[in-house]
Amino acid sequence: MTTITANTSSDDDYPPIGLASYCLALLFVSYIFSFIDRSILALLVGPIRDDFGISDFEYSLLQGAAFSLLYTITGLPLGRLADRFSRKWIISGSVLFWSLATCACGLTKNFTQLFIARMAVGAGEAGLSPPAYSLILDSFRPSHVGYAMSIYKLGVKVGAGLALVIGGVLYDYWATIGIVTLPVFGDIKPWQMTLISVGAPGVILSALLLTIAEPKRRNLATSGEKSIPIKTVFRFMWSRKQVYIPLFIGASMMAMAGYGSGAWYPELFTRIHGMSKSEAGVSYGTVVLVGGSLGVMFGAWLARFLENKGYTDSYVRAIFLTSLLAIPLMVAAPLTGSARWNLILLWPGMIMAGSYLGVLAVSFVIITPNEMRGQITAVYLFFTNIMGMAVGTTILAAFTDFLFKDDALLHYSIATACGLFYPLAAIAFWFSLAPYRGAVQEIGHWDLAEPRH
C-alpha cells in the first residue's frame, strides 16, 4: 500500500488577507447573481402560467428540471477543468454565459423556448462553485476557511432573497409601463423585462472576475502531477462511501425541502393570502435574505464552538443538530392559516434550515485532496441539484396537482415536503458522524493506491 503525504503550505504562504478578501467578495457577488438568476422564476409563476397556459406541475419543470438538467451534466467536466486550469477564467466565462442565457429567457415566446433557455442558465452556473470552493480553500488559512466558505455560501440566501425582493419591485415597475417594444425582438411583456433586467448586470461582473489574483494550489496529494485520472477520483470517493454518500444524501434532502418550498412560497402568499407580487417578494424575500444569512453564519459559529469543545466531527455534528431543529418550525409554518404567523415561524425555521450550507461545503472539501476538489464538488452539486432543483420543486407541485388536487391546498404540499425531507436529512447526517471522524484523521495522508474495504 502506498500512502501519499499531502504537499501542504505554511500559514505564511497564503495570499495577503486583502487579496483573499477581494477574491471572496467577487465570488460572493457571483453566487448572489447565480441565485437571483435561477430563483427569479419563483416570483413569476402567475404571469408565465397565464401567458403559456400551463399547470403548476409544468411550471415546476421550468423552475427545476430545465435548470438542473444541463447543470448536472456539465458540472463534472467543468469541475475537472477547475482542478487543472485557471479557475478565475472558468468562473468568468461561466458568469458571462449564464447571464446572457438569463437575458435570453426574457426573449422567449413559448414553453419550449423558455425550457431550453433555462437549460442554458443551468449549464453556465455549473462552472461557478467547483472552482470557487478550490479558490477559497487555497486563499484562506485553515482557521479562517470555515467563515470564508460560509460567507460565500451566504450567496444562496442573499441571492434567493434578493431575487424575490428586487424581482417583485422590478416586475411591478415593468407592469406599470406595460408592453415594451424592442428592435428585432418585438413586444416584450413585464415578466420578460424582469428576466432581462436581472441577467444583464452579470456581463459586467464577468469582466471584474478576471482581476482576481489566483493563489497557488495547496494540500496536493501528488508531487507535481497536474491531473489525477478520473477513475482514481471515483475510486477515492467509493472507498470512502460511508462518508460521502450520507453527506450527499443529507444535503440532497435539505435541498429538496429548501428549494421545493422556496420555489412555491411566493406563490403561496399571492394565491392563498392575497398578497401582490411585490408584497410577497419583500415579505418572504426578507426572511430568506436575513434569516437565511443568519443561519449560514450561525452554522459556522456552531461548528467552531463544537470544534473548540473537542469534537473532530464538528462540521457534520453542527448540521445534524440544526437539521433536527428545523423540522417542527418548517412543518408548522405553512399550516398556521395566516401570512403573519407563517412568516413569524419562518424566521427561526429559516435560520436552522440555512445553517448547513457553508458548513457542509467545508466538511467534504477539507477531507478531499486539492486535485479532486473541483470534481468531487461537482458530484456533490450533481446530487443536490438533481434532488433539490429538479425533484424538490417538481414533487411539491405534484403534491398539489395529483395528491391534494387543489391549487388552494399549496400550503399542505409545502408542509408535507418539509415533514418528509428534513427528518431524512437528519438521519443521513447522523450516519455520517462516525466515518467522518475517521476521514478527518486521514487529512494529509491520503492513500490513492488502492480502494479501502
Question: In words, what does this structure look like?
Answer:
This protein is mainly alpha-helical and 453 residues long. The longest helix is centred in the middle third of the chain and has 36 residues. It contains 17 helices and four strands. It has one domain: Growth Hormone, Chain: A, CATH 1.20.1250. Helix 11 packs antiparallel against helix 17 and helix 13 runs antiparallel to helix 14.
List keywords for this structure.
453 residues; mainly alpha; two-stranded antiparallel sheet; two-stranded antiparallel ribbon; 17 helices; 75% helix; 2% strand
Strand content: under 5%
Query: How many helices in DSSP terms?
Result: 17
**SSE succession:** EHHHHHHHEEHHHHHHHHHHE
CATH class: Mainly Alpha
The helix content is: over 70%
Briefly note the structural class of the backbone: mainly alpha
How many individual β-strands? 4
Q: What's the CATH architecture name?
A: Up-down Bundle
Q: Segments where pLDDT lies below 50 for 5+ residues?
A: 1-10
Distance between the termini: 13 Å
Q: CATH homologous superfamily, by name? A: MFS general substrate transporter like domains
